[in-house]
Amino acid sequence: MARATTPTWLSLDRWAQILGINPIHFNQMFSAVVPASNCNDAWTQNAYQNPNFTSREDLAQAIRDAEMKIASEIGYFLLPDWVADERRQTIRPARPELFSRASVNVRGLAKSIETDWGYVISGGQRAQVLIDDAVAVTVSDVDGDGYDERAVATVATAVTSPCEIRAFLPGQAGSFAYEIRPITVTIAAGVATITFNRWQLVVPELQDRLDAEQPDQRIDGDADASYETTIDVYRVWNDPQSQANLLWEHEPSGCSNCNGSGCVECSFSTQTGCLAVRNERLGEVTYRAATWDSVDEQFDVAEFSVGRDPEQLRVWYYAGWQSTDPRVSCPRVQLDPYWEKAIVYLSAALLDRELCSCNNVEKFVEYWREDLSRTGSDVSYQISEADLLNPFGPSRGGVYAWRQVQRDGRRIRK
Asked: In this structure, are residues 20 and 5 in contact, taking their beta carbons and an 8 Å threshold?
């Protein structure tokens, strides 16, 4: 599996697929099934294994940089994700000496705040629980080429949404760095069937070997010992029970020892609360004091523990763009194809090392890395100054991503 310690919305294996990189080589292996050519060089996990070429860790950093550059410009995550402990000021009266005694607006409805990120889905936090570990994987050769490329695992579960099922390499405690992506999940009669590619099961320890750049030390893709034979299956979902903390400042009372015990003046009064989405696109949410009922799994109304509107909020929420493309079956797990290419081309432009790949892939990446601001007797570009001065830079990949951002209706801020 192409993995990295940097979290990305676009999986590394999907990045390689879009660029047309052989998945065997991209996952650091060789195989007799893949014919000898000038594309036999295998990628490495870390840069120090082969400093001359881009590693998967380098690639993940470039992908994440590209994702966050785009997200910062459009005002929302390209894929739903969780925001933890965001601090927001509440709206105060125009006259600074006054307090607001009620948490309602001029229409008598709950006051609201605007979150840092748009397309808010719900308040809540990321939750993950093990469904079953060491789930056996069966492999098969579906196309008759001599390589068992299909991997399938089945597990009994009470989960009803296939989009909440996640697969991880075994023994990694469900760490994001070892999540198997992409996968296909179907659920029938309480059994989840998880389908993916066998090259996503490469034993991680083999990819981390220091001599990985030596041709005779590459991972043997035809040997069963090169692959994990089990996976760990988790449920990952948005847990709504922890959404907001309401914070009240204490009035000063001469506290002289802020680090001493019992000095409450140097801390906030707090109370749990809940959020309701008023405008999901703009990230406008209302807040109320509330307590979670674990039996009915809902919030019950509560009175403010302090007799005025809180000065600040700490909020946890789930937000991001959900694709409406019919090719996307799980829009909270799979990226919109509209943004996939923008991420791929921009991240390719951000890479600062050469690729260990085929000549055609290298040329493709060089195409997107080309500096469109360059002038000379051998080049002439017809491109507007606005495109050249975009915040992603004058590379062809940067200009492409910027134009995707600028299309009607894509940006919600700035």
From this structure: no
d(CA 228, CA 220): 13
SS (H, E, C) 133-158: EEEECEEECCCCCCCCCEEEEEEECC
> Can you give the pTM of this predicted structure?
0.92
Whether 117 and 251 map to the same domain: the answer is yes
The dihedral built from the CA positions of residue 97, 103, 106 and 111, taken in this order, carries a sign that is: positive
Instruction: Using the structure block, give the residue that is written with the tokens 């000898």.
Output: 36
Q: Residue 204 domain-assigned?
A: no
Let me know if residue 95 belongs to a domain: yes
Whether the CB-CB separation of 24 and 40 falls below 8 Å is answered with no
DSSP state of 110: B
Bridge partners, residue 253, by sequence? none
* Segment 5-15, tens digit of pLDDT: 999 999 999 99
Geometric angle at alpha carbon 65, from 62 and 71, rounded to 5° = 140
d(C-alpha 215, C-alpha 186), whole Å = 39
* Same domain flag for 271 and 339: no
Any bridge partners for residue 376, and if so which?
Answer: 379
Q: Tens of pLDDT along 185-203? A: 999 999 999 999 999 999 9
Cβ atoms < 10 Å from Cβ of 41:
17
